[in-house]
Design a protein that fits this description.
Layout lengths: L1 H9 L5 E6 L3 H7 L4 E2 L2 E7 L5 H13 L5 E4 L3 E3 L3 H11 L3 E7 L7 E2 L12 E2 L10 E9 L15 H11 L3 E5 L4 E3 L3 H12 L11 E2 L2 E3 L4 E2 L4 E3 L2 E2 L4 E2 L4 E7 L4 E2 L4 E7 L4 E2 L4 E2 L3 E3 L4 E2 L4 E2 L3 E3 L3
Parallel strand pairs: 1-3, 6-10, 13-16, 14-17, 15-18, 16-18, 17-19, 18-20, 19-21, 20-22, 20-23, 21-24, 22-25, 23-26
Antiparallel strand pairs: 2-3, 4-9, 5-11, 6-9, 7-8, 12-13
Helix pairs in contact: 3-5
């Protein structure tokens, strides 16, 4: 996911990035010890304690010594946003901060952002009830900030950019927003993560080209898939084993996962090294954690979580 985000940013001329890390930071640092991700030089800013969105931005920016106009990007969003256009809009308006917006059918999970015709933000409404949302344009998780924004964020403790910083900027008339209707997906739920994979398999996202997609699925060369298995819009990562008479539909198998015979898995995520026992049926939306074992003949569906950190 991080590689995809930084690859997209690099295509717009970004050469340096700061990763604001809090949860399991060592996973990122160990994965990219050279401090280079997708050709972009990265600095790791590890929060000493949870600082919320604005606090994390200030901490990361000060840690890296940022003193010029900079981008802020959510790391779990898959998007074809034209960052160059967003930056040009920001500078043309003389804005202190600019938010990328995206239209959605149900804005209740997001920050809703009504604007004037020229793009000045009128209000910032965080996660309103669907029937009360003033617009369907939501905060898409990419911002352009001037360094002066950092001084508006309290230096200590938790501070929310959505609930505290943006409303103040909007009230002073220095916050702008630009709508973009290109592909956008917040992958922050298991269902959305599966959708992101399926979208890439089906070519709905056009920025990134992935080789090896065959018949709508992707199978790592090191994986073993029995010829009797049926694979539909699924991802099978390295060293996975898929046994005979298995049916996978929109399933994500992470490295080393094993699916035993006569099993059906749909719209689910099987974690690294996990084993799904024979003759099991896993339906939407199951998440099996790393190295977990699902007993044979299991029938699981709904919002199922097994294992985890």
């Amino acid at each position: 996911m991080i590689e995809t985000v930084l690859e997209s940013l690099a295509s717009h001329g970004v050469t340096e990035a700061v990763l604001s890390l809090g949860y399991l930071p060592e996973s990122f640092i160990q994965a990219y010890p050279s401090n280079i991700i997708a050709g972009v030089k990265v600095t790791y800013a590890v929060e000493p304690e949870p600082l919320d969105t604005a606090g994390a931005i200030r901490f990361a920016a000060e840690f890296a010594g940022i003193d010029e106009t900079f981008l802020v990007v959510n790391g779990d969003v898959l998007t074809e946003l034209n960052v160059t256009r967003l930056l040009e809009f920001h500078r043309a308006r003389g804005a202190e901060a600019t938010i990328a917006l995206h239209p959605v059918e149900d804005p209740s999970r997001f920050g809703v952002v009504p604007t004037t015709p020229e793009g000045k933000v009128i209000d910032f409404v965080e996660k309103p009830p669907r029937e009360e949302a003033p617009t369907n344009l939501i905060n898409a998780g990419t911002y352009v900030f001037e360094p002066s924004v950092l001084s508006r964020i309290a230096p200590l403790g938790r501070v929310s950019v959505e609930r505290e910083t943006f409303p103040v900027l909007a009230g002073e008339g220095v916050l702008y927003a630009l709508a973009d209707e290109n592909y956008w997906l917040d992958t922050g739920t298991p269902q959305a993560f599966i959708q992101a994979n399926v979208d890439l398999l089906k070519g709905r996202e056009h920025v990134h080209e992935f080789v090896g997609i065959t018949d709508g699925s992707w199978v790592h060369p090191s994986a073993t898939v029995d010829p009797t298995a049926t694979i539909i819009n699924s991802v099978i990562d390295r060293d996975c084993i898929v046994s005979h008479n298995v049916i996978l539909t929109e399933a994500i198998l992470m490295p080393g996962a094993i699916v035993q015979p006569d099993t059906q898995i749909s719209s689910s995520i099987i974690g690294p090294g996990a084993v799904v026992g024979s003759s099991s049926v896993l339906g939407a939306i199951c998440v099996v954690g790393a190295n977990e074992h699902v007993a044979p003949n299991s029938e699981l569906s709904g919002d199922v979580r097994l294992g985890g950190v």
